[in-house]
Design brief:
alpha/beta; N-(1-d-carboxylethyl)-l-norvaline Dehydrogenase, domain 2; Rossmann fold; oxidoreductase; oxidoreductase activity, acting on the CH-OH group of donors, NAD or NADP as acceptor; NAD+ binding; 8-stranded mixed beta sheet; 6-PGluconate_DH-like_C_sf; 2 domains; 6PGD_dom2
Amino acid sequence: MTQDTTKTVASPSGLQRVTVLGTGVLGAQIAFQCAFHGKSVTAYDIDAAALERARDALTRLAQTYAADLPGTTPEATTRVAAAIALSSDLAQAVRDADLVIEAVPEKLELKRSVYAELARLAREGTIFATNSSTLLPSALADVTGRPEKFLALHFANHIWRHNTAEVMGTPQTDPEVFEQVARFAAEIGMEPIRLHKEQPGYVLNSLLVPLLNAAAALLLKGVASPEDIDKTWRIGTGAKLGPFQIYDIVGLRTAYNIASANPATQGWAEYLKVNYIDKGRLGAGAGGGFYDD
């Protein structure tokens, strides 16, 4: 059944006005998913050029949702995209937010500086959630100005299909806030996965990253091509995607940022930069990656 995406709805979580910081691959998806499920959404990025790219990404997502989700129409999803406000003014973007979801690049000092600014600008009652894939929320909590209202809310790429939302607090997170955010996740069509303690990589990436690292090592050693490594995994396990297909979906810039932060994977970071990122191949839907778009 087609959703009426022109109306807002009463929210049992109380989190109706959502601001997403960062409009990259996942940021744009989070913003669209929230708006698709009736939330009032503002997407923030640093400048007009980034917001222009964001509008293009939201337009593509409208087409994808209409094609992928039964009962949706292009007209409805186009209205969803158009309803998302875009802003490069952080104070304006977070002024009325009930929930701010941060999806800026995976760099600790950058995220800490963002939260220090948020602490100054956001309302006292606003909840902050990081979508960080690799950083523990406890590495950021002290600069948020509200550690009891701060936690991680982690989404997988293609969130309308791979609809897990991992909720992970710190020892300082208020249990009521934790449950409030878990309810919010359910309201936007996600399956909340409640983590009982902090875990680098959450559940999903704790399982996924060793696979991706093993595939990278095989490629760097010249053991086999990305296509044959992927084929082996798909045939041997019945999985729909191989590790290099997953890399393309995750985005090679994200893979590069993660690899750059680990001394053990500097060779992989350099390989990605020279062979893909410097050539404008950033992954699926962004110039191609290991596979052409």
